[in-house]
Amino acid sequence: MQKYADYIKRIEIDSLWSGKKHIVWELNPRVNILSGINGQGKSTIINKVVKGLSQGGEFPSHMLKGVKIDVEPVDARWIRYDMIRSIDSPLQPSAEGDGFINGMDAMKNSPLWGRVEGASLLDFQLYNLQRKYLDYQVNIGNRIIAELQKGNMDAAQLLSQKKTRFQDIVDDLFSETGKKIVRTENEIRFTQIGEMLMPYQLSSGEKQMLAILLTVLVEDDQAYVLFMDEPEVSLHIEWQKRLIDLCLELNPHVQIILTTHSPAVIMNGWMDSVTEVSDITV
Predict the structure, then answer these.
(1) pTM greater than 0.85 (yes/no)
(2) φ, ψ (nearest 5 deg) of residue 47
(3) Roughly what angle, to the nearest 10 degrees, separates helices 237-250 and 153-173?
(4) N or C: lower Cβ tally within 10 Å for the chain?
């Protein structure tokens, strides 16, 4: 049976680039914010860890050379994780093929999306999250049925609350533009002044926030690690302030590891969770 880590305790990188900068970062089980001026290596630290994890299989065997992570519990050999990036760019499939070609075709032909022109990486990410959201609802539905069959009405009601809370949060965030989630649909759609909107029709900031919240929700309260590289880009300052709190509300078992330039991200009591790159360089 695969044993998954609850969180990452420590990240060590022998050399950040060109044989320079040995990194040792002791992590908090819940929130870790990496700060520093441009060029110090914030994104590089995150990217090296994620690149190693993305190879799949057990760690540490597939981690990049010179990159070491310690986890809790110590004998865990698998990590659930997600990565949110701030840069949204046009979807440009490589000549060798990287999954985006089939992904674009699927997006354009899917009834969940309709016709997508000029799709971006964020649109592709949202498309995949949309499918995970459907799976999440099926899983929740099956568990609700099981609880009802046992006569556990309170437990069944509790299981449905997280999805409802997610919908309430999104409605609240998007309220200034009059967008609301259509709650009679299993897939995510919005109404705005009587018009139906798909996720790819949202603004960049709305897409970014929706992607983050969906990513957290569909992990279904499991312990996992959420890496975010400057997630505040495109986000309204009030959304930046609420970002960490909303993620923890949707999944209290998530460990957040993010880089940021924005003071707003730490305004709601997260100053003590900030680490400067210079402080972990030895």
Answers:
(1) yes
(2) -65, -35
(3) 170
(4) N
Tokens of 241: 């302030």
Low-confidence ranges of the chain (pLDDT < 70): 17-19, 86-118
The amino acid present at 82, given as its one-letter code, is D
Check residue 61 and give its pLDDT: 77
